[in-house]
Amino acid sequence: MPFIRSFSININKSHPFPFNILAVKFARQIALDARVTIFAGDNGSGKSTLLESLAFYLKLPLIGGQIDSHAGFEAARLIKPYMEIEWQNQINKGFFFRAEDFSDFINGVERENNKIDANLRELKGQVDDAIIERMRESMNYTLFDMRRKYGENMQAFSHGEAYLKIIQTRIADKGIYLLDEPEAALSPLKQLSLIAFILDVLKGGKAQFIMATHSPILMGIPGATLYEIQEDNMQQVSYKETDHYRITKTFLDNPQYYLRHLE
Fold this sequence. Notes:
Elements: E1 4-9, H1 22-26, E2 30-31, E3 36-41, H2 47-58, H3 74-79, E4 83-87, E5 94-98, H4 99-120, H5 129-139, H6 141-150, H7 159-170, E6 175-180, H8 188-202, E7 207-212, E8 225-229, E9 234-237, H9 243-253, H10 255-259
Parallel strand pairs: 3-7, 3-8, 5-6, 6-7
Antiparallel strand pairs: 1-2, 1-4, 8-9
């Protein structure tokens, strides 16, 4: 059973940013009564802004920390006073996954290592290398935090495997989970793995997923409600009605139809 029944951004003005974003202009009584809701649309249509605004309103945690202390949510801060959520069953559990946060989190370990290496460089040749390595690991808070949360160093995994590992660790059987363009970190095969994982979580009946994606694979999640954001509206569509499906299918059926114009 979904926790959020619907949401609206109730504002009449269409300027300045972020109120001129298509998705913000059209977000009126958007039903979220399916267990999976997916927002599709072209770049700049506002899919991510919708998810960020929902996550900010709900105060969902991020991979790298807490959303209300994060500097990158100015649009969501401006939208929050106009956001209204209709609850089916209110809950304060969940998570907001963004591919950019995942990359920052993983790369943060390397950045910290580089800083620590610079500080420990003068010990090289005076202290055993194994001791220096233990010192480096003990000083790297980002690495410690990663191991505390996920049990291991995610740098040992491929990009997609690490992303799936974090998702599988942070998603429980109860909560609201927002995924912003997860395909950015996942191969087509790993996208299918993500669908399988989501469907398995949904068997418990206590999770709700809201996603923004360009991926026709992820749009195919069985039972998902699809919204497509266009220049003049945002409305529910069937899977095969989306631009992403139609363009991808016609390209795969006949690549030369598109590519000949580029030669």
